[in-house]
Amino acid sequence: MSEREKMLAGEWYWANDPELLAMRARARELFMRYNQTLNSEQPLREEILAVLLGSVGKNPDIQPPFYCDYGAYIQLGENVFINYNCTILDYALIKIGNNALIGPNVSLYAASHPLLASHRIRKGSDIAKPITIGDNVWLAGNVVVCPGVSIGDNTTIGAGSIVTRDIPSHVFAAGNPCRVIREVTEEEGS
C-alpha cells in the first residue's frame, strides 16, 4: 500500500513520501497562481479551482490568500464563500456543503501527529481523518476545525472556536473546546 493510500485510509503514513511531496508542490503552484488573481478575473479563478480542488460546485467565492496541502481532497458545494487567509490541510477528504460561509483566518486540519516526540520522528508518523461541514454552515472568523470532525447542517460556529468533536445540526456552538450553546430555530432570524 502506498503512503498516499495509507493517508486516505486513515492509517499512519509518512508525509515526506516523494509522491505526496510532488502532490503538495503542485497544489502550492496552483494556489499561488490563484492568490495572484484579481476580483475581476473570476473565470480564471474558477478555472484554477477546477484543477486544484477535488470538486467545485457552482458560484465558488474564495478570497485570496487561500492555502491548502493537496487541494484534490477538498470538495466544495454550491455557493460556498471562503474569506481571506483560509488554510485547509486536506490530508483526508474535506467536504464543505452548499451555501457554507467560512470566515477569515479559518483553519481546517485533517492531519494529526502522535503526542510522543519519539513517535513523531519515526516513519509513519502522521495520520489523517476526514472533516465534513454541512449545508448552510457558518464558521465565523478564526475557527479551527480538528481532524475527524463533522458539523451538521444549518449550524453556526462562533468566532475563535476550536472544534474538537462533532457538532449537530441547527445549533449555535462556540468556545475552546467548542460546545453547543443553544439550538437555533427558523423563527429566530438572527
UniProtKB/TrEMBL annotation:
Residues 4-58 form the Maltose/galactoside acetyltransferase domain. It holds the Pfam family Hexapep_2. PROSITE patterns: HEXAPEP_TRANSFERASES. Gene3D superfamilies: Hexapeptide repeat proteins. GO terms for cellular component: cytosol. SMART domains: Mac. Signal peptide: none annotated. It comes from the Bacteria. Belongs to the transferase hexapeptide repeat family. This is Sugar O-acetyltransferase.
